[in-house]
Design goal:
Layout lengths: L6 E6 L4 E7 L12 E6 L9 E6 L2 H4 L6 H19 L7 H15 L1
Length: 110
């Protein structure tokens, strides 16, 4: 019997990128040191990263508790840093773009 992996896939249409949010239990091969972890993903044949992954300890419950919002924002910011690096976005020069990306991700997550 296969277990259904629960995840939230957030599409960022203007960049043709996705951010996938899953429970930490699906993270393999990484030492867990906190309440969240963010990494890049790459599909076969892709020239650059277009998939980013954020893992949380029980993210569906986590987002219900306001004290967890800083952890959620922290991991979203890591995803934005990866996206900026991979897409050549200079966040120090495009502060509004980074802020809009953060707001977009947080609206989808919380």
């Amino acid at each position: 019997m296969k277990h259904k992996i629960e995840k939230l896939v957030i599409e960022i249409p203007h960049l043709q990128a996705t951010v996938t949010v899953q429970d930490m239990k699906y993270l393999k091969g990484v030492e867990i040191k906190g309440g969240g972890f963010t990494c890049r993903g790459q599909e076969k044949g892709e020239k650059r990263h277009t998939n980013y992954h954020i893992f949380f300890m029980d993210y569906k419950e986590m987002k219900k508790i306001p004290q967890n919002f800083p952890i959620i924002a922290h991991e979203c910011l890591h995803a934005i840093q990866y996206i900026a690096e991979d897409y050549g976005i200079e966040l120090s020069e495009e502060k509004e773009h980074g802020a809009y990306l953060l707001t977009y991700l947080l609206e989808k997550l919380i």
